[in-house]
Amino acid sequence: MNSRFKPISRLSIVFILAMVLSGGILTYFSINNISNLKELTEKRILEEQRELSARFSIALQNNIEKLTAGFKNDMDQVGLMKDSLINTAADHDFIIQAFILKNNGEFIFPNFTGIPENLLRP
């Protein structure tokens, strides 16, 4: 009887060892797979964050450029030149009538189309 139980116990031990060994290998590979997936997910998240921040900064830069272009276009260059010209004419007595011309020869200041303007400021 002793000889009958020995092969069964040996087979049981071999079966248990095979299960534990294969389970251990599968567990190792699944843990390794999970850690690799975690690293890849973190890299993907960082890449998406970089992409979103780049898109946001480009959109913000474009918005700022549009706004500053609007400010530049809204500034009255003729008014600034006119004020500077009037101040210069007031400083010098030999300037009788100051004027500003366009490239084509039209008067910008003073406007001689019948609109009265104050030429000199006190």
Could you explain how this protein is built, in words?
Keywords: Membrane, Transmembrane, Transmembrane helix. The chain crosses the membrane at residues 12-31. The longest helix has 73 residues, at 2-74. The chain has helices spanning 2-74, 77-91; strands at residues 100-101, 107-109. The chain has two domains: 1-75; 76-112, no CATH class. Helices cover 72% and strands 4% of the residues. Strand 1 (100-101) and strand 2 (107-109) form a beta hairpin. Residues 118-122 have low confidence and may be disordered.
Concise synopsis of the structure shown:
The chain has two helices and two strands; from the N terminus they run H-H-E-E.
List the helices and strands and how they pair.
Blueprint (H helix, E strand, L loop, with lengths): L1 H73 L2 H15 L8 E2 L5 E3 L13
Antiparallel strand pairs: 1-2
Q: Number of folding domains?
A: 2
Low-pLDDT sequence parts: 118-122
- The proportion of residues forming helix, as a percent range, comes to over 70%
Which strands sit side by side, in order, in the main sheet?
1-2
- As a percent range, the share of strand residues is under 5%
Number of helices: 2
What's the count of strands?
A: 2
Content-based structural category: mainly alpha
N- to C-terminal separation? 131 Å
Can you write the helix and strand succession as a string? HHEE
Mean pLDDT: 79
Shape: rod-shaped
Q: Please state the CA-atom Rg, rounded to the nearest Å.
A: 44 Å
Main sheet properties: 2 strands, antiparallel
